[in-house]
Amino acid sequence: MKASAKKTPQPTPTTLLEVQLSLNPSVGRVATLRRDCLIRDGYRCVISHAFDWEEAARRIERDEDNAKDDDGNLLKDEDQQSEDLEVAHILPHSLMSYDASGQADLVC
Asked: How far apart are CA 10 and CA 21, in angstroms?
């Protein structure tokens, strides 16, 4: 590979997240799964339809009084308060492995 500058490229410093992911790769998969599920569900609880508090805060900071949900409704007009949503992981046993102590982990 030919360098285009006079300075030798330096490796990017490793972030704390990259170190954590290298030690426990399932952490990254769970975070990705959580993000994907919230996006899929429009950042709303599938039971109560409450909007995710973290996403509401991001949108309000970005758009102020004009912050909207994924359907275009203003967040300030919500009947119920935003909540801190969690993702329920319903995984079949075929995707899990167990160590000698009985601790479960996702199969890579």
From this structure: 22
Residue 100: per-residue pLDDT: 66
Report how far residue 33's alpha carbon sits from residue 38's, in angstroms, rounded to the nearest whole number.
Answer: 9
- Kindly report the three-state secondary structure assignment for every residue of the chain: CCCCCCCCCCCCCCCHHHHHHHHCHHHHHHHHHHHHHHHHCCCECCCCCCEEHHHHHHHHHHHHHHCECCCCCEHHHCCCCCECCCCCCCCCHHHEEECCCCCEEECC
pLDDT digits (tens, 9 = 90+) for 5-37: 566 655 555 555 555 555 555 666 777 888 888
Alpha carbon distance 60, 46 (integer Å): 22
Q: Which pair of structure tokens corresponds to residue 83?
A: 């909540």
- Whose tokens are 């399932």? That residue is 26
CA atoms within 13 A on the CB side of 41: 21
